[in-house]
Amino acid sequence: MAAEAGKIALAHFRTEMQVETKADNSPVTIADRKSEEVLRGMMEKHTPAYGIIGEEFGTQAGRADREWVIDPIDGTKAFIHGVPLFGTLLALLEGGKPVVGVIALPALGHTVHASLGGGCKLDGVSCGVSSIGRIEDSLLLDGSICTMERLGRGKAWAALRARAKLHRGWGDCYGHFLVATGKAEAMVDPIVSVWDVAPMAVILPEAGGMFTSLSGGFSITEGSGLSSNGGVHAEILAGMGGTEL
To answer: What is the fold of 135-239?
Structure first.
Protein backbone atom coordinates (compact mmCIF):
# COMPACT_ATOMS: atom_id res chain seq x y z
CA MET A 1 0.00 0.00 0.00
CA ALA A 2 2.77 2.43 0.89
CA ALA A 3 4.51 1.67 -2.40
CA GLU A 4 1.37 2.50 -4.37
CA ALA A 5 0.89 5.76 -2.47
CA GLY A 6 4.54 6.60 -3.12
CA LYS A 7 4.07 6.21 -6.88
CA ILE A 8 1.32 8.82 -6.82
CA ALA A 9 3.40 11.22 -4.73
CA LEU A 10 6.38 10.88 -7.06
CA ALA A 11 4.20 11.47 -10.13
CA HIS A 12 3.35 14.91 -8.72
CA PHE A 13 6.68 15.69 -7.04
CA ARG A 14 8.44 18.76 -8.42
CA THR A 15 5.57 19.53 -10.79
CA GLU A 16 3.25 22.52 -10.98
CA MET A 17 0.53 21.92 -8.40
CA GLN A 18 -2.18 23.99 -6.80
CA VAL A 19 -1.60 24.25 -3.05
CA GLU A 20 -4.65 24.77 -0.86
CA THR A 21 -4.72 25.76 2.80
CA LYS A 22 -6.85 23.67 5.18
CA ALA A 23 -8.75 24.90 8.21
CA ASP A 24 -5.77 24.15 10.47
CA ASN A 25 -3.58 26.34 8.23
CA SER A 26 -1.65 23.35 6.86
CA PRO A 27 -1.16 22.85 3.11
CA VAL A 28 -2.73 20.13 0.98
CA THR A 29 -2.27 19.13 -2.66
CA ILE A 30 -3.87 16.81 -5.18
CA ALA A 31 -1.09 14.33 -4.38
CA ASP A 32 -2.15 14.12 -0.72
CA ARG A 33 -5.76 13.49 -1.66
CA LYS A 34 -5.16 11.06 -4.51
CA SER A 35 -2.73 9.04 -2.38
CA GLU A 36 -5.22 8.71 0.45
CA GLU A 37 -8.01 7.77 -1.96
CA VAL A 38 -5.91 4.92 -3.36
CA LEU A 39 -4.94 3.74 0.13
CA ARG A 40 -8.55 3.77 1.30
CA GLY A 41 -9.60 1.81 -1.77
CA MET A 42 -7.00 -0.87 -1.10
CA MET A 43 -7.94 -1.08 2.57
CA GLU A 44 -11.65 -1.33 1.83
CA LYS A 45 -10.93 -4.13 -0.65
CA HIS A 46 -8.58 -6.23 1.46
CA THR A 47 -9.73 -5.43 5.04
CA PRO A 48 -13.36 -4.30 4.64
CA ALA A 49 -14.19 -4.70 8.34
CA TYR A 50 -11.42 -2.40 9.55
CA GLY A 51 -11.98 1.25 10.35
CA ILE A 52 -9.90 3.99 8.70
CA ILE A 53 -8.52 7.23 10.17
CA GLY A 54 -7.03 9.48 7.50
CA GLU A 55 -5.63 12.98 7.51
CA GLU A 56 -7.48 14.14 4.39
CA PHE A 57 -10.84 12.32 4.52
CA GLY A 58 -11.49 11.75 8.20
CA THR A 59 -12.67 8.68 10.10
CA GLN A 60 -14.58 5.76 8.67
CA ALA A 61 -15.99 3.41 11.30
CA GLY A 62 -15.37 -0.32 10.97
CA ARG A 63 -16.90 -3.52 12.30
CA ALA A 64 -13.66 -4.92 13.77
CA ASP A 65 -11.41 -3.86 16.63
CA ARG A 66 -8.80 -2.76 14.12
CA GLU A 67 -8.22 0.57 12.39
CA TRP A 68 -5.86 1.81 9.73
CA VAL A 69 -4.26 5.22 10.24
CA ILE A 70 -3.14 7.10 7.11
CA ASP A 71 -0.92 10.10 6.51
CA PRO A 72 -0.64 10.02 2.70
CA ILE A 73 2.14 12.62 2.54
CA ASP A 74 3.80 13.47 5.83
CA GLY A 75 5.91 16.55 5.21
CA THR A 76 3.68 18.24 2.65
CA LYS A 77 5.60 21.50 3.07
CA ALA A 78 8.81 19.74 2.09
CA PHE A 79 6.96 18.04 -0.78
CA ILE A 80 5.65 21.28 -2.30
CA HIS A 81 9.11 22.87 -2.05
CA GLY A 82 10.73 19.99 -3.93
CA VAL A 83 12.56 18.63 -0.88
CA PRO A 84 12.67 14.81 -0.88
CA LEU A 85 12.28 14.35 2.91
CA PHE A 86 8.56 13.48 2.83
CA GLY A 87 6.90 10.14 3.28
CA THR A 88 3.80 7.99 3.52
CA LEU A 89 2.85 6.87 7.04
CA LEU A 90 0.68 3.86 7.76
CA ALA A 91 -0.25 2.23 11.03
CA LEU A 92 -2.59 -0.55 12.04
CA LEU A 93 -4.25 -0.17 15.43
CA GLU A 94 -5.66 -3.02 17.46
CA GLY A 95 -7.74 -1.93 20.41
CA GLY A 96 -6.50 1.58 19.78
CA LYS A 97 -2.82 0.61 20.05
CA PRO A 98 -0.39 0.43 17.11
CA VAL A 99 0.67 -3.09 16.12
CA VAL A 100 2.10 -2.32 12.66
CA GLY A 101 3.90 0.80 11.48
CA VAL A 102 5.37 1.94 8.16
CA ILE A 103 7.47 4.95 7.15
CA ALA A 104 7.97 4.97 3.37
CA LEU A 105 10.20 7.62 1.80
CA PRO A 106 9.48 7.32 -1.94
CA ALA A 107 11.85 10.05 -3.14
CA LEU A 108 14.73 8.47 -1.20
CA GLY A 109 13.78 4.87 -1.97
CA HIS A 110 13.69 3.65 1.64
CA THR A 111 11.03 2.06 3.83
CA VAL A 112 11.10 1.26 7.53
CA HIS A 113 8.43 -1.05 8.89
CA ALA A 114 7.77 -2.85 12.14
CA SER A 115 5.21 -5.12 13.73
CA LEU A 116 4.58 -5.70 17.42
CA GLY A 117 7.03 -8.37 18.52
CA GLY A 118 8.39 -8.75 15.00
CA GLY A 119 11.27 -6.28 15.09
CA CYS A 120 12.03 -3.32 12.83
CA LYS A 121 13.39 -3.50 9.29
CA LEU A 122 14.91 -1.03 6.85
CA ASP A 123 14.30 -2.16 3.27
CA GLY A 124 13.81 -5.70 4.53
CA VAL A 125 16.94 -5.82 6.70
CA SER A 126 16.80 -5.63 10.51
CA CYS A 127 17.72 -2.22 11.87
CA GLY A 128 17.98 -0.54 15.23
CA VAL A 129 18.70 2.62 17.16
CA SER A 130 22.10 3.90 18.22
CA SER A 131 23.71 3.07 21.56
CA ILE A 132 24.65 6.66 22.46
CA GLY A 133 23.69 7.61 26.00
CA ARG A 134 24.70 11.27 26.34
CA ILE A 135 23.12 14.43 24.94
CA GLU A 136 26.65 15.74 24.36
CA ASP A 137 27.31 12.93 21.86
CA SER A 138 23.90 13.12 20.19
CA LEU A 139 22.32 14.40 17.00
CA LEU A 140 19.03 16.06 17.98
CA LEU A 141 16.31 16.78 15.41
CA ASP A 142 13.15 18.85 15.21
CA GLY A 143 10.74 20.03 12.54
CA SER A 144 10.82 23.74 13.35
CA ILE A 145 12.50 25.86 16.01
CA CYS A 146 9.84 28.51 15.30
CA THR A 147 7.11 26.05 16.33
CA MET A 148 8.99 25.27 19.54
CA GLU A 149 9.14 28.97 20.34
CA ARG A 150 5.49 29.58 19.45
CA LEU A 151 4.44 26.81 21.83
CA GLY A 152 6.55 28.15 24.68
CA ARG A 153 9.21 25.44 24.46
CA GLY A 154 11.90 27.51 22.75
CA LYS A 155 14.21 28.15 25.72
CA ALA A 156 14.07 24.56 26.94
CA TRP A 157 14.84 23.18 23.50
CA ALA A 158 17.60 25.75 22.93
CA ALA A 159 19.32 24.60 26.13
CA LEU A 160 19.26 20.97 24.97
CA ARG A 161 20.46 21.91 21.47
CA ALA A 162 23.35 23.87 22.95
CA ARG A 163 24.56 20.73 24.73
CA ALA A 164 24.18 18.40 21.76
CA LYS A 165 26.98 17.38 19.46
CA LEU A 166 24.81 18.36 16.49
CA HIS A 167 21.34 19.74 15.84
CA ARG A 168 19.42 19.77 12.57
CA GLY A 169 15.89 20.60 11.44
CA TRP A 170 15.32 17.35 9.56
CA GLY A 171 11.75 17.04 10.69
CA ASP A 172 8.52 15.21 9.95
CA CYS A 173 8.73 11.47 9.37
CA TYR A 174 12.32 11.71 8.11
CA GLY A 175 13.52 12.67 11.58
CA HIS A 176 11.83 9.66 13.19
CA PHE A 177 13.21 7.47 10.39
CA LEU A 178 16.75 8.59 11.22
CA VAL A 179 16.29 7.74 14.90
CA ALA A 180 14.84 4.29 14.14
CA THR A 181 17.76 3.47 11.85
CA GLY A 182 20.50 4.64 14.23
CA LYS A 183 21.48 7.83 12.39
CA ALA A 184 20.19 10.28 15.04
CA GLU A 185 19.45 10.03 18.74
CA ALA A 186 16.20 11.98 19.13
CA MET A 187 13.44 13.66 17.14
CA VAL A 188 11.09 16.09 18.91
CA ASP A 189 7.60 16.92 17.57
CA PRO A 190 5.92 19.49 19.85
CA ILE A 191 2.56 19.35 18.07
CA VAL A 192 1.20 16.37 16.15
CA SER A 193 -1.97 14.55 15.14
CA VAL A 194 -2.49 10.80 15.52
CA TRP A 195 -1.59 10.10 11.87
CA ASP A 196 1.77 11.85 12.33
CA VAL A 197 2.97 9.51 15.06
CA ALA A 198 0.94 6.28 15.15
CA PRO A 199 3.63 4.32 13.24
CA MET A 200 6.39 5.62 15.53
CA ALA A 201 4.73 4.03 18.57
CA VAL A 202 5.54 0.57 17.22
CA ILE A 203 8.58 1.31 15.01
CA LEU A 204 10.74 2.92 17.71
CA PRO A 205 10.21 0.29 20.43
CA GLU A 206 10.77 -2.52 17.91
CA ALA A 207 14.00 -0.79 16.83
CA GLY A 208 15.15 -0.79 20.46
CA GLY A 209 14.26 2.81 21.19
CA MET A 210 11.38 4.72 22.77
CA PHE A 211 8.41 6.77 21.69
CA THR A 212 6.33 8.92 24.06
CA SER A 213 4.62 12.28 24.16
CA LEU A 214 6.55 15.17 25.67
CA SER A 215 4.65 14.51 28.89
CA GLY A 216 6.15 11.01 28.94
CA GLY A 217 2.86 9.31 28.08
CA PHE A 218 2.59 6.42 25.64
CA SER A 219 -0.68 7.49 24.04
CA ILE A 220 -0.60 8.47 20.36
CA THR A 221 -3.35 11.04 20.93
CA GLU A 222 -1.58 13.36 23.39
CA GLY A 223 -0.58 15.87 20.74
CA SER A 224 3.22 15.71 20.83
CA GLY A 225 5.93 13.17 20.16
CA LEU A 226 9.47 12.23 21.12
CA SER A 227 11.32 9.45 19.35
CA SER A 228 14.69 8.49 20.78
CA ASN A 229 17.22 5.73 21.05
CA GLY A 230 16.16 5.33 24.68
CA GLY A 231 19.53 6.38 26.07
CA VAL A 232 18.73 10.10 26.01
CA HIS A 233 14.97 9.92 26.39
CA ALA A 234 14.62 10.70 30.09
CA GLU A 235 17.06 13.59 29.89
CA ILE A 236 15.18 15.17 26.97
CA LEU A 237 11.84 14.80 28.75
CA ALA A 238 13.32 16.44 31.84
CA GLY A 239 14.89 19.20 29.78
CA MET A 240 11.63 19.92 27.95
CA GLY A 241 9.75 20.17 31.22
CA GLY A 242 7.92 16.84 31.10
CA THR A 243 4.51 18.45 30.87
CA GLU A 244 2.25 19.64 28.07
CA LEU A 245 1.40 23.33 27.78
So the answer is: D-Maltodextrin-Binding Protein; domain 2 (3.40.190)
